[in-house]
Amino acid sequence: MPYLSRLIEGYRRFREQDWARERERWSELSEGQSPQVMILSCADSRVDPAQIFDARPGEMFVVRNIAALAPPYETTRGFHGVSAALEFAVTQLQVGEILVMGHGLCGGCAAALTGQFDDTEPGEGHFIADWVRMLAPARDHVRAHHQDLDREAFLEMEREAVKVSLANLRSFPWIAERERDGRLMLHGAHFSIAEGRLYMLDEAEGDFRPV
Protein backbone atom coordinates (compact mmCIF):
# COMPACT_ATOMS: atom_id res chain seq x y z
CA MET A 1 0.00 0.00 0.00
CA PRO A 2 1.47 3.42 -0.91
CA TYR A 3 2.31 5.57 2.10
CA LEU A 4 -0.01 8.21 0.65
CA SER A 5 -2.91 6.01 1.74
CA ARG A 6 -1.74 6.28 5.35
CA LEU A 7 -1.45 10.04 4.96
CA ILE A 8 -5.04 10.22 3.72
CA GLU A 9 -6.18 8.13 6.69
CA GLY A 10 -4.39 10.56 8.98
CA TYR A 11 -6.03 13.48 7.24
CA ARG A 12 -9.45 11.95 7.81
CA ARG A 13 -8.71 11.55 11.52
CA PHE A 14 -7.59 15.18 11.58
CA ARG A 15 -10.85 16.29 9.97
CA GLU A 16 -12.96 14.26 12.37
CA GLN A 17 -11.06 15.10 15.53
CA ASP A 18 -8.49 17.91 15.56
CA TRP A 19 -10.14 20.18 12.98
CA ALA A 20 -13.55 19.72 14.56
CA ARG A 21 -12.14 20.47 18.03
CA GLU A 22 -10.31 23.58 16.82
CA ARG A 23 -12.94 24.69 14.32
CA GLU A 24 -13.25 28.16 15.81
CA ARG A 25 -9.48 28.54 15.72
CA TRP A 26 -9.30 27.49 12.06
CA SER A 27 -12.05 29.97 11.27
CA GLU A 28 -9.91 32.75 12.78
CA LEU A 29 -6.85 31.58 10.85
CA SER A 30 -8.74 31.74 7.57
CA GLU A 31 -8.48 35.53 7.93
CA GLY A 32 -4.68 35.48 8.34
CA GLN A 33 -1.87 34.51 10.71
CA SER A 34 -0.10 36.34 13.51
CA PRO A 35 2.39 33.93 15.14
CA GLN A 36 4.53 35.40 17.91
CA VAL A 37 7.51 33.10 17.42
CA MET A 38 9.54 31.64 14.58
CA ILE A 39 11.10 28.22 15.08
CA LEU A 40 14.16 27.26 13.05
CA SER A 41 14.37 23.49 13.34
CA CYS A 42 15.89 20.48 11.63
CA ALA A 43 14.01 18.61 8.91
CA ASP A 44 14.60 15.39 10.86
CA SER A 45 11.33 13.44 11.14
CA ARG A 46 11.85 12.91 14.89
CA VAL A 47 11.80 16.56 15.93
CA ASP A 48 8.49 18.15 14.96
CA PRO A 49 8.33 21.51 16.80
CA ALA A 50 4.52 21.54 16.87
CA GLN A 51 4.55 18.20 18.66
CA ILE A 52 7.41 19.02 21.02
CA PHE A 53 5.86 22.33 22.09
CA ASP A 54 2.25 21.09 21.98
CA ALA A 55 1.35 24.09 19.84
CA ARG A 56 -2.06 25.03 18.51
CA PRO A 57 -2.61 25.86 14.84
CA GLY A 58 -1.20 29.26 13.89
CA GLU A 59 0.99 29.69 16.97
CA MET A 60 4.41 29.14 15.38
CA PHE A 61 6.02 30.07 12.08
CA VAL A 62 8.29 27.10 11.41
CA VAL A 63 11.18 26.67 8.99
CA ARG A 64 12.95 23.33 8.84
CA ASN A 65 16.14 22.38 7.04
CA ILE A 66 19.21 20.19 7.39
CA ALA A 67 20.74 20.76 10.86
CA ALA A 68 18.44 23.72 11.70
CA LEU A 69 20.92 26.16 10.15
CA ALA A 70 20.50 29.87 9.57
CA PRO A 71 22.79 31.02 6.76
CA PRO A 72 24.77 34.26 7.04
CA TYR A 73 23.33 37.43 5.53
CA GLU A 74 24.00 37.69 1.80
CA THR A 75 22.86 40.22 -0.78
CA THR A 76 23.67 38.22 -3.91
CA ARG A 77 20.71 37.36 -6.12
CA GLY A 78 19.63 33.75 -5.89
CA PHE A 79 17.35 31.27 -4.22
CA HIS A 80 17.77 32.09 -0.53
CA GLY A 81 14.90 30.08 0.92
CA VAL A 82 15.77 30.30 4.62
CA SER A 83 16.67 33.98 4.35
CA ALA A 84 13.34 34.69 2.62
CA ALA A 85 11.49 32.91 5.42
CA LEU A 86 13.41 34.91 8.02
CA GLU A 87 12.64 38.16 6.22
CA PHE A 88 8.96 37.30 6.00
CA ALA A 89 8.69 36.29 9.66
CA VAL A 90 10.59 39.29 10.99
CA THR A 91 9.62 42.15 8.70
CA GLN A 92 6.12 41.09 7.64
CA LEU A 93 4.71 38.95 10.45
CA GLN A 94 6.83 40.86 12.98
CA VAL A 95 7.42 37.90 15.26
CA GLY A 96 8.81 38.84 18.64
CA GLU A 97 11.06 35.81 19.13
CA ILE A 98 13.14 33.36 17.10
CA LEU A 99 14.11 29.99 18.53
CA VAL A 100 16.85 27.91 16.91
CA MET A 101 16.35 24.28 17.96
CA GLY A 102 19.04 21.73 17.26
CA HIS A 103 18.67 18.12 18.33
CA GLY A 104 20.43 14.92 19.28
CA LEU A 105 21.57 12.39 16.70
CA CYS A 106 21.51 15.05 13.98
CA GLY A 107 22.67 13.64 10.66
CA GLY A 108 23.52 17.07 9.25
CA CYS A 109 25.80 17.90 12.16
CA ALA A 110 27.35 14.44 11.94
CA ALA A 111 28.05 15.03 8.24
CA ALA A 112 29.74 18.31 9.05
CA LEU A 113 31.86 16.76 11.80
CA THR A 114 32.98 13.67 9.88
CA GLY A 115 33.17 15.17 6.39
CA GLN A 116 31.05 12.26 5.19
CA PHE A 117 29.87 14.04 2.04
CA ASP A 118 32.98 16.03 1.20
CA ASP A 119 34.09 15.74 -2.43
CA THR A 120 30.82 14.17 -3.57
CA GLU A 121 28.92 14.78 -6.79
CA PRO A 122 25.35 16.11 -7.09
CA GLY A 123 22.95 13.35 -6.16
CA GLU A 124 25.51 11.75 -3.85
CA GLY A 125 25.72 14.35 -1.08
CA HIS A 126 27.06 17.42 -2.89
CA PHE A 127 24.25 19.74 -1.75
CA ILE A 128 24.48 18.42 1.82
CA ALA A 129 28.22 19.07 1.92
CA ASP A 130 27.79 22.61 0.61
CA TRP A 131 25.06 23.37 3.14
CA VAL A 132 26.86 22.09 6.24
CA ARG A 133 30.11 23.76 5.16
CA MET A 134 28.95 26.80 7.10
CA LEU A 135 29.76 24.72 10.19
CA ALA A 136 33.44 24.35 9.22
CA PRO A 137 34.83 26.63 11.99
CA ALA A 138 32.67 24.85 14.59
CA ARG A 139 33.81 21.49 13.23
CA ASP A 140 37.46 22.49 13.56
CA HIS A 141 36.82 23.62 17.14
CA VAL A 142 35.17 20.34 18.09
CA ARG A 143 37.83 18.22 16.38
CA ALA A 144 40.55 20.11 18.24
CA HIS A 145 38.98 19.12 21.55
CA HIS A 146 38.01 15.55 20.63
CA GLN A 147 40.66 13.42 18.98
CA ASP A 148 38.20 10.54 19.04
CA LEU A 149 34.85 11.45 17.55
CA ASP A 150 32.87 9.98 20.41
CA ARG A 151 29.31 10.75 21.47
CA GLU A 152 30.44 13.84 23.37
CA ALA A 153 32.01 15.21 20.20
CA PHE A 154 28.78 14.80 18.25
CA LEU A 155 26.77 16.39 21.06
CA GLU A 156 29.14 19.35 21.16
CA MET A 157 28.89 19.67 17.38
CA GLU A 158 25.09 19.80 17.58
CA ARG A 159 25.19 22.51 20.21
CA GLU A 160 27.89 24.51 18.45
CA ALA A 161 25.68 24.48 15.35
CA VAL A 162 22.97 26.27 17.33
CA LYS A 163 25.47 28.97 18.28
CA VAL A 164 26.57 29.32 14.65
CA SER A 165 22.96 29.86 13.57
CA LEU A 166 22.42 32.50 16.25
CA ALA A 167 25.56 34.34 15.13
CA ASN A 168 24.41 34.15 11.52
CA LEU A 169 20.98 35.47 12.44
CA ARG A 170 22.62 38.53 13.97
CA SER A 171 24.37 39.23 10.66
CA PHE A 172 20.97 40.18 9.17
CA PRO A 173 20.68 43.95 9.73
CA TRP A 174 16.92 43.93 10.31
CA ILE A 175 17.31 41.16 12.89
CA ALA A 176 20.21 42.85 14.69
CA GLU A 177 18.35 46.17 14.77
CA ARG A 178 15.22 44.63 16.26
CA GLU A 179 17.21 42.69 18.84
CA ARG A 180 19.03 45.87 19.90
CA ASP A 181 15.86 47.86 20.42
CA GLY A 182 14.01 45.02 22.16
CA ARG A 183 11.48 44.18 19.47
CA LEU A 184 13.01 40.75 18.87
CA MET A 185 14.57 38.10 21.11
CA LEU A 186 16.76 35.23 19.92
CA HIS A 187 16.98 31.88 21.70
CA GLY A 188 18.89 28.65 21.25
CA ALA A 189 17.83 25.16 22.28
CA HIS A 190 18.79 21.51 21.89
CA PHE A 191 16.26 18.69 22.01
CA SER A 192 17.52 15.32 23.21
CA ILE A 193 15.64 12.61 21.34
CA ALA A 194 16.85 9.89 23.71
CA GLU A 195 15.64 11.78 26.80
CA GLY A 196 12.71 13.65 25.32
CA ARG A 197 14.18 16.67 27.08
CA LEU A 198 14.71 20.26 25.94
CA TYR A 199 17.88 22.14 26.84
CA MET A 200 17.93 25.94 26.54
CA LEU A 201 21.10 27.88 25.75
CA ASP A 202 22.31 30.38 28.32
CA GLU A 203 24.29 32.60 25.97
CA ALA A 204 26.00 34.46 28.80
CA GLU A 205 27.47 31.19 30.11
CA GLY A 206 27.60 29.39 26.78
CA ASP A 207 25.93 26.32 28.33
CA PHE A 208 22.73 24.42 27.63
CA ARG A 209 20.51 23.86 30.66
CA PRO A 210 17.56 21.44 30.94
CA VAL A 211 14.11 23.02 31.07
From TrEMBL:
Keyword Lyase: yes
InterPro entries attached to this UniProt entry: Beta_CA_cladeB, Carbonic_anhydrase, Carbonic_anhydrase_CS, Carbonic_anhydrase_sf
Named cofactor requirement(s): Zn(2+)
EC number: 4.2.1.1
Alphabetical list of Pfam families matching this protein: Pro_CA
Catalytic reaction annotation: hydrogencarbonate + H(+) = CO2 + H2O
SUPFAM superfamilies: beta-carbonic anhydrase, cab
Keyword Metal-binding found: yes
Function: Reversible hydration of carbon dioxide.
Family: Belongs to the beta-class carbonic anhydrase family.
Protein name (record): Carbonic anhydrase
Organism phylogeny: Bacteria, Pseudomonadati, Pseudomonadota, Alphaproteobacteria, Sphingomonadales
